[in-house]
Amino acid sequence: MSSSSAYEHCVVDHHKLVNKDNLFPDVFFQVDDKVTLSAHYYILKMRLPQLLEEGPGANSKKAKKGKNNAKDRKVVIKLNKSEMITPNALEKVLIWAYSGVIDETDFTPFKAIEVMRACSVYNITRLMQMNEKFLQDNLTMKNIFSLLKFADSLNVQEAKDICIEFALLNGDFFTSTNAENLGFKLYQEVTSLLLKFHQNPEKQQQTIITVTEPDTIVADFSNLFESASTTGDISFLIQQEEVKAHKPLLSILSRKLAALVGNEELTGPIKLDTKYQRVSPAAFKSLLKFEYYGEDNIDMLHACELMSFVKDYKLTSLYKVLENVVGGQEVSAETVLSVLDVAYHPLMDENPTLQNSLKEEGLNFTTSHVDKINFDPLMTMPPVIGTHILQALQQRIGKNWNLIADSSSDKSVQLDSLNNGRAAKAKAAASASSPVASEVSASASKSDLKTKESKTNVTAPAPASKGTPAKTKDTARGKDSKSDAKSPRAMNRTKSHKHGGKGDKKEVKKKK
Questions:
Q1: Residue 78 pairs with which residues in a beta bridge?
Q2: What pTM was computed for the model?
């Protein structure tokens, strides 16, 4: 849903399109020989199609179409003078069609009655109710007589009923000298109603007029946006996808955007400058939805993509919405690089508070979620962003490096202890199972002990002094563990171990 502020900016401001010859109109209403009002075919087609149809209000209708209906269409409608639709009334109707509100600039109860006349001809229910309420709220004893007479002259029955009810509920009406100005016929009509009024006490209360007909302005402009693929007269090429829109609606947003879409030399879709290459088709459609019907529920990623384009083209209201979206939502692995791209954009220098907040939040999130972020977009972003990410990551790792090292060392010690415990349990189990296994285990333990001692003695000996022997027996043997293993003494020692083992087995058999 659109917020009220977005609705007011986008929908209400559409009335600026009415009767502006420089904003690409294609429908022209000839009210009389001197006055012609201009409008736009597809907006009226969506909002008030009855204005485009031949009927009571139109004396004649001419339509001229070229090869491209959207560009070359020109519809001229001559109003029927007998319907007494004034230029002022038709202009108010058109403004309401574009904005959904009554233009109360210089608006008076008399003008409200004129609009009610047009509403009765074109059957515009909601606008009729809005003017009925305005008339009722602005009736006084000073204007009641002239308004009643004016309503009667235009044959607006709804306005007459409101004025007569006011007269019946105010006794001063019939005692005023102004009553004579109504004319004999109208005064007689009012007095006859007065008799019926007093005969029915239940109806001696004012009927409070309310607007009950639903407002469809947002839905209608939403449908207009959806129809742009077939009815649009301007197109943009966004990342190889064509996005269409209606030129008049974009022309009122800013002078720079009006110059872009109004370039008469265009022969194909508008291609955005390369500095806006990150704007996706979905993001650009979010821009159009906001400007068409005030949709301000914008995805954070799209908001980041649009920031620089919207700022450059001076779309002030939308930029404020984007700032709230980017600054008010939490970053994610999918949006963090886009947020940083926005934060480091030169245009953000105008808002240092938001800029610093986005930088801090973006860098903190990046360094703590490195494994979840796709860093490919960094290749097309300013190098300073990548540099600051590395610096932040270096700072974060530097603070925690000792903890990481200590944690790894503790885990290594724990693992060695666990392995030693498992080995001790295995040896104990083997010793308990058989005497032979116990002896073999003891022998293996001695062998392991000797091997460890051998490894310990492999270290290079200290330089010998003049009074010291050059090499000891153990040092000479520890010089090369491989040669020691192949020496005759080592081979004899190995054989004696083997024979000793067989002898032990024979002794066990004899005992059995």
A1: 30, 60
A2: 0.70
